[in-house]
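ASSEMBLY PREDICTION REQUEST
Request ID: AP-0331
Submitted by: J.K., bench scientist
Number of chains: two
Total residues: 412
Priority: normal
Notes: Please return the full assembly, not individual chains.
Input sequences:
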Amino acid sequence: MKAPIYVYVFIMWMMIISGGGLLFTIIAPLEIHGSGRYDEILDSTVKAGIAILLVILWVFIVSKIKNWIFHKQIQN
Amino acid sequence: MMLDKTIAAIVISAIAFVIVYFLTPILIKTLEKRKLVVKDYNRVGGAMVPRPGGPSILAGIVASEIVLYALYSSAAILAIILTTFLAFLVGLADDRKVLGGWFKPLALAGSAIPIILLGMYAPGVYESHLAFPLFGHVRIPELYIALIIFMIPITGNTINSIDVLNGVASGFMTIASFALTISLLIIHNYDIAIASLPLGFVSLAFYRYHKFPSRIFPGDSGALTLGAMYGTIAIVGHVEIIAAIALLPAVINSFLFLSSVKRIIEHRQLKSNPVEHTEDLKLKATTHKDAPVTLVRLIVANRPMTEKEVGFTIFKLALFSAALAIITAFMMGVHI
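STATUS: Completed
Returned structure:
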């Protein structure tokens, strides 16, 4: 049962690195205009909202991977 | 200058180690005299073990960090001392009186206030950005305050949740904190690297008495003190991602627990335990449907193991994630 735990730790590490990449390459460069002096607040709110959604998605994926890797043990 | 810092590093490491090494036996006797002992259910005959060891852990940390502050008066060191002390008080309150599952996360969030307040008056205590390997920094001024408030309860409770077997919390913290110190050196943050040394040496000295068969348990005051200091170093050292990676096995333990019980509760509130004992007191995975999935339950899923064997398996996992954290620190210097 030990090897799958190492695989799980490694997958989580990869997901942390790739999650950072996603934030940098796609979300950070986004620019939202059209609300005059509220542009900055709107821009930050949208980016924060996307980041929170990504965290929820990340937890969901990690949970699915957990079920997949530890399927037999969790069913027990 | 570099020689001065090396001497300071040696001195505060020695202070941290020696205080815990010599104070803990005195604390053990005092706790036994006051009958502040709890049953070790995994031991043959159910030995009574003194608890909490938090006071000696705190003494080692505070004494060494005060000496460091006297040498290099820095607001970051002050933030480490104050946050760690407040987290210790939260843990001590929980050691004395059983408090609700939500008490610790909320009170630990309050322990993070010194970091925020000191950051307002002394720029550099924390940076409002997250540093990612390969990609650089991302500025999140408002969100970062929320991250500080979340970080301390997460690291505190994560270490507390792995404190289930003899020596695991202190041994795990020794590995994770030295990985963090090495990472801080790799990214050239020498001042915080020095400030992080007492955490590793205090954990190592405490492990001497906490390892199987434990002569003392850290209790909530010990585990939360170690976890909160680790979280504070991650913030003031700008190594939040690296710190999370070094802590991954403990994070997985918390995640498995939360995703199976689906709410924040204390271990003592569980209806069924994740592991049971064989006749020769080895640990084996339970077959109860409503028992939570934990790291220990997964480790003993295939075959029953002794408490010592499970502890060493967790340490091997901690070494693996420590290696990943150090690799990540090297990747910080590489930009795509």
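REVIEWER COMMENTS: Residues 51 and 57 of chain A are 10 Å apart (CA to CA).
SIGN-OFF: pending second reviewer
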